[in-house]
Structures are given as structure tokens and as C-alpha cells.
Here is the input.
Amino acid sequence: MIPRRAFIKKTTIATGVVLSGANLFASSHPSSPQSALIFDAMGEIRDVYTRELVKEMIASGLNAITVTLCDPKSYEEGAVKLAIEGINMYDTYLNANPDLYIKATKLSDIDAAKRAGKIAVFYLFQNSTQFGRDLSSVDRFYDMGVRSSQVTYNFQNWAGAGCKERTGAGLTLFGEELVAKMNEKGMLIDLSHANMVTMADTIKASKDPVMISHTTCKALYNNERNTTDENMRLLADKGGVIGMCQMRPFVSFTREGAYEKYISHILHAINVAGEDHVCIGSDRDHRRVTMTPEYIAELKAEEGPNFHEEDWPLYMEELNGPRRMETIWDSLKARNLSETTIEKVMGKNVYRIYKEVVG
Here is the structure.
């Protein structure tokens, strides 16, 4: 990503449903991710990625991804400035690599990327502060190619309260107006990072299905970023989709065995919300990361007060690299999930909600 949230300097990390396209994803039971549709509901693309790394991501089966445009820890005019810069930077990067990426603004861009062996890249804001209190700014950013936005990041804004906020405040009056405007425009609402009250209020207020693109299950691990069973059921009842995040501190306190616990989060979400409402939202880098002093310095610069050394590494070693969707596919098969269910979780469910909301 560009930084973990705005392009960043190069580092020394080792890099080492009903579907619109005619039979594009229509094999009755794909035996691998390469023959299915793979869509990461929220992941990373960074300008430091080598062409070889991106080609390996494509070879692993990745067809589409939604990326964060800029640092969400900003407000007012600073948020607007970073949002515009993030769009321009991603546009420049994608345009410079037309054989690898398609800037995605509609469902058919996923189909085109699948046919051409590229990655369709959708744009996301991880906060609504760039909108301020001006609903016309939704139109402005939509016209620049943005198709999804979170209502909050970690703290209170004009629309609602984030998961780190001291009070349990919910969706505000302006938040209700923003939800209606995003519904009208066809901009997908993302409730990652919201507190449980704002999350529930928004699900109820939205006429369209909503997304929680990157979280895990509070019933399995009581982290403030995780989602309750109650809200997962509420989201599913309205047709929404919930993405299972690969940030290890949201999965397990312990590093040992974290990957198996991650698979358990996926299975729990399926049991609670249903197989039509769960997906993968990695929130992770595709590079093969090593915890060098240079990388730790990069993290501190990007995360600021969110950096807590005891939480690192954020990644699980089994998912450390560009072929992680293959690893998850194989693990779900090993847990005896049907191919139909695996296809839904790995991409078809995200495709479906983009079809319904973005079009």
C-alpha cells in the first residue's frame, strides 16, 4: 500500500452467485484458486512491489482487491488533502503498470481483469473524515473513482464512533445523512473499525447491504477491533458481508498456533453469519516480510501511536507472502468445507455485494 495508508519510501524488506462474464467463474467445482474468483475485500498494494511479486500474486489466483487510499488518522482539511493525494498516487501507479492492474470502478472491471490475467483494484477510504460535513463530497470522490468508505476509523468523527472511543456513542444524525447519500450514490459502506453501536445503527439505517471488510470474531478473541456474533447476524440478515482479517493481534494473543486460530475465526463466522456472508479481508502486505530494524522503523513511522512493539510481528508466518490465498483455500478444504462454500468465501461473496451496491 502506499504508505500503510499514502505511498511510502522504498524499504529493505525482502520481496522475494450470478456472474456477468460468460462462464468466467462458472466451473462447477474449481479445484484451485486459479480456476475460481479470488477477491481480497481489503488488502495492500504498494509501489515498492516488484513486477515479479505482483505476477506471483496473480499466479496465486488473485483477481481483485480493495485498497486503502491514505492514512485514516486525519481530520478536516488534512483528511481532504491526503485523500486527493492518495487517489492521484494510486492512479499514477496503476497507470504505469497497465499489464498488471485495472483501476476498478464497476463490476465488469473484475471480469476484464480475470480474462486478462490482471488484478482489479478498487479504492477505499478507511474513514469518512475526508467528506467533512459536506455530502456533495461523496459525489466528488465517487467521480474520482472511490467506491467504498468506512464510516469511522478508531475514534469519533462527524458520522459515528470508532472502536477505541471512550463512550458507546452510535451513528450520529449526520451519519444517517451520510449513509443515505452513500446508498443513493452506490458507494459501498464499510463498518470496519466502528464500535458495536455505530456498526449496528449503520446496518439498520442502510437500505443497501454493508461490508465489514477486515475484522475477526469477538466470541473467539475479545479484541476491540473484533465483531460480535449479534452484529454478524444483523449484517447477514441485511445481506452484508464480513471479511476475516489476517492481523495476528486480532486473531490471537499468542503467536504459536495463530494460523489455525485464524481458520477457526473463518469457520465461526460461517457458522454465525452463514456461508453467503463471509469473505477474506487480509489487511496485509504481500511481501515476504522479515522483522529487520529497517522494517520496524517503517512501521513506527506509519503507525505512530498505534505502534506497540509487543504486538509485532502482525503477520502469521503461514500467510507471509503473495500466495496466502492458496494457503487459506487449502486449509478450508482440509477442514472439509465444500468447494461451493470455499468459492463463496474466497471471492464470490464480495463479488455479489459489489454487484448489488456498486454495479
